[in-house]
Design brief:
The complex is a heterodimer of chains A (153) and B (268). With 153 residues, chain A is α+β, with helices and mostly antiparallel strands. Helices cover 32% and strands 15% of the residues of chain A. Chain A is globular. Classes of the chains: A alpha+beta (153), B alpha+beta (268).
Chain lengths: 153, 268
């Protein structure tokens, strides 16, 4: 089945075989491997994308249901050569552990700051609660985003 | 896989009549986990997220496709409280109350609230029209409900009287992204009667009617009555031991949670 949808501002076509997830189609057909495949049950947040304005785990979205949808993945954030303010802040604070979950954090934080440019610490923690999963090293991520939240726009 | 993406309720009912038993896809937070783990391989899917009628929300009517993210701001306090505890922001942006009702998991956090409110489940089919099923007739067992293969869950319907004073709490193995070990809703009517509903402690959500009766007889309970209330709730639940908890712990926790929520109702 052919589906047509918008990914990172471009119209894309995918040939969906069956009940595979949006995550699978992004990674395996559209050459967008930034969204990571880990838990496949919505628990870890590393496959987070913005779907029609909502932050979702793309592993729980059936690709066949994405006809006409608008998707932003981590590849659609920042440019080829310049980083978004969130990416730069994470870099400046060394806010990675192994890095596997980082794309999901970038997408979740981008969604948060789009809706709330000056979130409180609690709002940041709540917005990232679907990405905080099992490892440590979250202090640097929170410090990076708190710094950004405090900056004048 | 054949997928139908209706944009109206009638379209959804047509699709369901044409393919009775087709898998219904709303937020996907239950269905896609089963698909990803190879436990289900749907051949027919009816995708519901484009059906605007199902996403309507009114004081006495909550459309089946209303997401937890929207219910976080519900005017019904315990519903808003429980919506904030479902999964993560990503899950709440997808998952719907109708999905909770359709999956009918014993651990569905929305279900004790529906039980406490005496909600009815509105379902519809193309050929047999609309019917409303009381919650205690709708939920029939573990992941079983009274939905017929040609029916679609349309809405949760609340009665005319809904208590304002209502509280939710749940216990799990950690504080976020967790399946409930015990979930509870206690609500207090203006006449002092209370409703006590529990989840994850029986095949279906249940009401602790003997505990409710105890408070009806003692609307301003003493410490002794509160202790008896907790004990009665513990006796009334029918939990099992599984990988998440034991029967004994669930009985104990159900009593503790119900008493805690009752005390919140009594001071608010």
């Amino acid at each position: 089945m052919i589906i047509t949808f918008t990914v990172n501002g471009e119209s894309r076509v995918a040939n969906v075989a069956g009940d595979e997830s949006l995550l699978t189609v992004l990674r395996e057909q559209l050459e967008l491997p930034g969204s990571k495949n880990a838990c496949e049950q919505g628990e870890c947040g590393s496959c987070s994308v913005i779907l029609d304005g909502r932050l979702v785990t793309s592993c729980l979205v059936m690709a066949a249901d994405c006809e006409g949808a608008n998707v932003t993945t981590v590849e659609g954030i920042g440019g080829e050569r310049e980083l978004s303010a969130i990416q730069q802040a994470l870099l400046d604070h060394g806010a990675v552990q192994c890095g596997f979950c980082t794309p999901g954090f970038v997408v979740a934080a981008t969604h948060l700051f789009e809706h709330n440019p000056h979130p409180s610490s609690d709002e940041i923690k709540e917005a990232l609660s679907g990405n905080i999963c099992r490892c440590t090293g979250y202090g640097a991520i929170l410090r990076a985003l708190e710094g950004l939240a405090g900056e004048a726009t | 896989l054949e997928i139908t993406r209706p944009t109206t309720l009638n379209g959804a009912l047509d699709a369901r009549a044409a393919n009775p038993g087709a898998d219904m896809l709303a937020g996907g937070t239950d269905l896609m986990v089963e698909v990803n783990f190879g436990h289900r391989n749907p051949e027919q899917v009816i995708a519901l997220r484009r059906v605007e009628e199902l996403a309507d929300i009114e004081t006495r009517r909550i459309g089946a496709a209303v997401t937890w993210a929207r219910l976080e701001r519900s005017e019904h306090q315990a519903l808003a409280q429980l919506a904030r505890t479902v999964g993560s922001p990503q899950i709440r942006a997808l998952g719907t109350i109708g999905g909770n009702i359709g999956t009918a998991s014993p651990a569905g956090d929305g279900l004790p609230w529906l039980a406490a409110m005496n909600a009815e489940i509105e379902v519809a089919s193309r050929d047999r029209g609309t019917r409303r099923v009381p919650w205690n007739e709708f939920f029939t067992g573990v992941k079983r409900n009274a939905l017929e293969p040609d029916e679609v869950i349309v809405a949760a319907i609340l009665p005319d009287y809904v208590p304002v004073n209502q509280h939710f709490a749940k216990i799990g193995q950690r504080s976020a992204m967790v399946i409930s070990t015990v979930a509870a809703v206690v609500a207090r009517d203006e006449d002092g009667r209370v409703r006590v509903a529990l989840g994850s402690v029986a095949p279906t959500p249940l009401r602790a009617t003997r505990a409710e009766e105890l408070i009806a007889e003692n609307p301003e309970p003493s410490e002794r009555v509160l202790e008896e209330f907790a004990r009665t709730v513990s006796e009334e639940v029918r939990p099992i031991t599984d990988h998440r908890s034991t029967e004994a712990y669930r009985r104990h926790a159900a009593g503790v949670l119900a008493r805690r929520l009752l005390e919140r109702c009594l001071v608010s």
